[in-house]
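Batch queue: ligand-bound targets. Current item pairs a single chain with zinc ion. No template structures supplied; prediction is de novo from sequence plus SMILES. Inputs echoed for audit trail.
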Amino acid sequence: MPQILKEIKSLLNHAQNATAHGQANVSFLIKALLRHLKKNIASSAMNYSNQLTTAVFQKLWIAALRQLPHSYSPYSNFPVTASLLMEDGSLFTGINIENASYSMTLCAEASAIANAISQKHQKITHVLVHAPKLDFCPPCGACRQRINEFSTPNTLIILTNQQGNYKTLTMPELLPCSFNLEAHPSSDQSIG
Ligand SMILES: [Zn+2]
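Prediction returned. Tokens below.
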């Protein structure tokens, strides 16, 4: 049973008991109920923004597969494609772009992000990554930080396999304790 229904049921039980004992405080109960509803509606709205519906998955998946043949990966022969869904519904894609000087290689996620940012789209809601040669290929460490820069804690990262199955991670799951210039909650402890 969803938490909100449990809470409503408990409040109703409380009301019945109070009434039975002649102690009903209707105003108190209504206020408590409204508080719970308000909290639940706010949290549902937040969750809704990063739900992965079949339609959203299909949109990202098809865009990523269309982009895949453009991967420039002659050295590793390990093509990767990524697609991004932005807050306003815009879609951007990228592929890995290798270089004879290996360290200059650009990841698929990085090229998709560069594509989005250069067109003034900065809030990512979903990231899909696909590498045909590795099931559920995760973003590399550097790309986790890159994605984090343009994400919220609700941004979903979708890892796929060849059959079109997927796993999802939230941004904090993908990159716990990410680097940013805001202070982290204090974890330092005095010694002595
Ligand atoms: Zn990367």
